[in-house]
């Protein structure tokens, strides 16, 4: 596993912990400043609460694809009641 993949896995794990514990402030704090302007804390809380109510906790995530430039990765996220694909982008 590359160092970049480990970095993405670490971020995905932290987001999973924040999501499962309902600590959406921590989840939203990982956003870039630009993203925070679009997805305010109130909007983030509403979305994540809706997602949790409909899908449940995250029980597993698996890296399935990485973009050629290495800045985007796709994870298959298994929730208690659904499976979704999540794209993470890291701005350094």
Query: Uncertain runs with pLDDT below 50, 5 residues or more?
Result: none
List the total number of helices. Answer: 4
What is the radius of gyration computed over CA atoms, rounded to a whole number of angstroms?
13 Å
| Tertiary shape | globular
Helical fraction equals 40-55%
Give, in spatial order, the strands making up the sheet with the most strands: 1-2-3
Report the end-to-end length measured between terminal Cα atoms. Answer: 20 Å
Q: Kindly name the structural category.
A: alpha+beta
Description:
With 92 residues, the chain is an alpha+beta fold. The chain is built from four helices and three strands, in the order ααααβββ. The chain has helices spanning 3-21, 24-29, 33-38, 41-55; strands at 58-66, 72-79, 83-89. Strands 1-2-3 form a three-stranded antiparallel β-sheet, with helices on one face. The longest helix is centred in the N-terminal third of the chain and has 19 residues, at 3-21. The two termini are 20 Å apart. The model has no long low-confidence stretch (mean pLDDT 86).
Characteristic key phrases:
single chain; 92 residues; alpha+beta; 3-stranded antiparallel β-sheet; 4 helices; 50% helix
Task: Give a concise summary.
By secondary structure, the chain is of the alpha+beta class. The chain contains 4 helices and 3 strands; from the N terminus they run H-H-H-H-E-E-E.
